Amino acid sequence: MRYRVLGKSGVRISEVALGTMTFGDDWGWGASPDVSARMLDLFSDAGGNVIDTADVYTNGTSETILGELLKGRRDRFVLATKFTNQTDPADPNSAGNHRKKIATSIEASLRRLQTDHIDLYWVHARDLLTSVEELMRALDDQVRLGKVLYPAVSDWAAWEIAEANTAARLRDWSPFTAVQLRYNLLDRSPERELLPMADAFGLPVFAWGPLAEGRLTGKYLSGHTGRLTEGGRAYSRVGSDDIVREVLAISQEIGCSPAQVAISWVRQQPGSVIPLIAARTEEQFRDNLAATDVHLSQQHLDRLDALSRPTLGFPADVMREASVVAGVYGAQLPDIDDPRAEAVRRTTTHD
């Protein structure tokens, strides 16, 4: 296991994180407490230290299982959970990102997790009814109370995260320390806005869905009739079977599973990108965890990039055109020794 640094915090985090949406079978699928315990032990023994859950995962059972499993070793882990989604259908204030929701959600999560603080507290989704200022101030209050160490954000647009962090910095509140988003070989749309924003703000990226809801394992190419789902929700089938076939070809060339190729591709992306790995069975988890031993060559990365490279859209595509680059940076661009200049040269298109 290799380690990264959690943005500007200095906290050391493992190169993959343990996703625990599968901990508990309240939704009719998932892992029993015994299987969950074995997966956590495998992850810990491999050197993993980031555990990601949410107050709504398996109706709170995921947090409850973790609370039991972490007894006596909680401080060895960077423990992350989330809030936003409604937890009581009869209570309208059990949904959202307002101060009341935060105050009640964190107390409930602390009880289930049997701890006195959350290391990484994710805003699960954007609530347009709650102002960014109220949310960031309420999170900062929890930091000052010692119940949250680092606020973080999941599934927001890039401009919304930029607005929130700018507002926090202007008021000396705690900014978001990390971003979580869906990112895989079949959906590279975060490269348009989210990844550049994360790089600019120094935010590590936690990538969920690195296997594209199982499609990158190749099983749907062989006539598998199951739904492409994650947690019971169907997602759009983005991408091409050609990408999946290339993943299968590379896995055969280097002697690993297709899942390990897909996870390693995410892990080897520029910046600090951390795949969230999860499974319903111990066998699946062992296979996913072994991706930390797989390193794709530049040739493999280039082959996958050629098939999956996204169209960035305006203005990024226009600003990469050779004629525009020449006008903006001048004829001396090839002679400028600077990493930023190198990045411009590397991404310039000459079509």
Topology:
Blueprint: E1 3-5, E2 12-14, E3 17-19, H1 33-45, E4 50-52, H2 61-69, E5 78-83, H3 99-113, E6 118-123, H4 132-144, E7 148-154, H5 158-170, E8 179-182, H6 194-201, E9 205-208, E10 229-230, E11 233-234, H7 241-254, H8 258-267, E12 273-277, H9 282-289, H10 298-308, H11 316-319, H12 322-329, H13 339-347
Parallel strand pairs: 3-4, 3-12, 4-5, 5-6, 6-7, 7-8, 8-9, 9-12
Antiparallel strand pairs: 1-2, 10-11
Number of strands: 12
Helical fraction equals 25-40%
**Main sheet: which strands, in order across?**
3-4-5-6-7-8-9-12
CATH superfamily of the largest domain: NADP-dependent oxidoreductase domain
Tell me, what's the shape?
globular
For the CA atoms, what is the radius of gyration?
21 Å
Name the helix and strand elements from N-terminus to C-terminus, one letter apiece: EEEHEHEHEHEHEHEEEHHEHHHHH
CATH class of the largest domain: Alpha Beta
Low-confidence spans: 225-238
**Please, how many helices?**
13
Keywords:
13 helices, 2 domains, TIM Barrel, 351 residues, alpha/beta, 8-stranded parallel β-barrel, globular, two-stranded antiparallel sheet, 38% helix, single chain
